[in-house]
């Protein structure tokens, strides 16, 4: 009887211990290709499932249409996929690699990479690309602090506010 009780007790402890051991989700290094308009091969119009499969370490997911129709956030890396509006946003604390060193670049220094902007405003500029559009936002010092890109064009792109 003692052996039977000891056996059940050992099984209960072992099953609880193994239930507590879970591998952490590891993401590959995030690489943004500005000229091709993708992040680790993920394009702005990819589905939620495709994004989560390629980059499983997301910090939050919202599917509410009130929040721009869907959002997958990677807050640790400061990158956001707006799945309802088909664009990707890279913010100033981005920790991955940019194919072109845009973050922190001064206004007026982008011609060598992107040519002339199609649309200019006081705080942002929009550039036509081979895949669609690239919008760069500037801080008060005139340095880029946010990048948004989409396969859409300037007329059809709807950004979240």
Q: Can you give a write-up of this model?
A:
The chain has 161 residues and is α+β, with helices and mostly antiparallel strands. Helix content is 19%, strand content 27%. The chain has helices spanning 2-20, 48-54, 111-114; strands spanning 31-33, 38-39, 60-62, 71-74, 79-82, 87-91, 97-98, 119-120, 124-128, 133-138, 144-150. A hairpin with a 4-residue loop joins strand 1 and strand 2 (38-39). The longest helix has 19 residues, at 2-20.
Tell me briefly what this model is.
The protein is α+β, with helices and mostly antiparallel strands.
Can you lay out the helices and strands and say which pair or pack?
Layout: H1 2-20, E1 31-33, E2 38-39, H2 48-54, E3 60-62, E4 71-74, E5 79-82, E6 87-91, E7 97-98, H3 111-114, E8 119-120, E9 124-128, E10 133-138, E11 144-150
Parallel strand pairs: 1-7
Antiparallel strand pairs: 1-2, 3-4, 4-5, 5-6, 6-11, 8-9, 9-10, 10-11
Overall 3D form = globular
The whole-angstrom Rg is 22 Å
Mean pLDDT: 87
Number of separate strands: 11
Give the assembly state of these chains: single chain
**Alpha-beta classification:** alpha+beta
* Helix content class: 10-25%
Strand order of the largest sheet: 3-4-5-6-11-10-9-8
The helix tally amounts to 3
- Beta-strand residue percentage: 25-35%
- Largest beta-sheet details: 8 strands, antiparallel
Elements, N to C (H/E): HEEHEEEEEHEEEE
The end-to-end distance, rounded to whole angstroms, is 68 Å
- What are the segments in which pLDDT stays under 50 over at least 5 consecutive residues? none
